[in-house]
UniProtKB/TrEMBL annotation:
It comes from Serendipita vermifera MAFF 305830. Residues 24-118 form the Yeast cell wall synthesis Kre9/Knh1-like N-terminal domain. The keyword Signal applies. It holds the Pfam family Kre9_KNH. This is Yeast cell wall synthesis Kre9/Knh1-like N-terminal domain-containing protein. Residues 1-18 form the signal peptide. Keywords: Signal. InterPro entries: Kre9/Knh1-like_N, SRP1/TIP1-like.
């Protein structure tokens, strides 16, 4: 009981003062090409992530491929920790894409969402074809995708630690060797690869429910609990 109470207190402290925690997309998220791709996270409360790069990635857990830096935002902005942009055309249309979060001032390493699906414009997608064992023994399904138009790709930001461009492999791996998941005026947008910050509603795209402020704090605690037991 004491151990459980200590864990809860530690988790709450983490939620109060912590790096950003990626919340969305989740493993069940499906975004159609050309529609809005939406990203949601808890804001950084350490004051470190004032410049936060968000990269669209693919590949396995240890050989990650940078496709595009979709945005550079202020990760400490508490007004609206979210970003939307027009989903890029990719191949294949499968649940093999994820986002990587980095910041020049952070010493804790990159953060990741779980893998999600980018479907074609009609909502059609195919299953991931590759498998990999995660550190907790679960089987991770993955694949390596690419931008349909390679000229839309770019080099990874300097905090990624790699020099690859477009659809080649970027260096670095997810924390603990796994890719995990990590209101409403527009997010403070510094620059964007393909889109702009979202409009002034807190509803998520693709019919998902609105996000309450309390759910963000709960998400941060849940993310910490999941990370500790992997």
């Amino acid at each position: 009981m004491l151990a459980s109470a200590a864990f809860i207190l530690a988790a709450l402290a983490y939620a109060v003062a912590a790096d950003p925690v990626p919340l969305e997309p989740s493993s069940t998220s499906v975004f159609n090409e050309g529609s809005n791709c939406t990203i949601l996270w808890t804001p950084d409360t350490t004051g470190t992530w004032t410049t936060m790069y968000i990269e669209l990635m693919t590949g396995d857990n240890f050989n990650q491929v940078h496709l595009k830096t979709v945005a550079t935002v202020d990760g400490t902005d508490t007004a609206n920790p979210r970003f939307s942009y027009p989903c890029l055309d990719v191949t294949p249309n499968s649940p093999i894409y994820f986002y990587k979060f980095t910041s020049p001032g952070s010493t804790t390493g990159p953060l990741f969402t779980t893998r999600f699906t980018i479907a074609d414009s009609t909502g059609t997608s195919t299953p991931a074809t590759e498998t990999q064992n995660a550190t907790d023994g679960t089987v991770v399904r993955w694949g390596t995708g690419a931008l349909t138009d390679p000229t839309q790709g770019d080099a990874p930001p300097p905090t990624s630690g790699g020099t690859s461009t477009g659809n080649t492999t970027a260096s670095g791996s997810a924390s603990s060797g796994t890719v995990r998941p990590t209101g409403s005026s527009s997010s403070t947008l510094i620059s964007s690869g393909t889109g702009t910050s979202t409009a002034s509603t807190s509803s998520r795209t693709n019919g998902a429910s609105k996000v309450a402020a309390g759910s963000i704090a709960v998400g941060a605690v849940g993310a910490l609990a999941a990370a500790l037991f992997l």
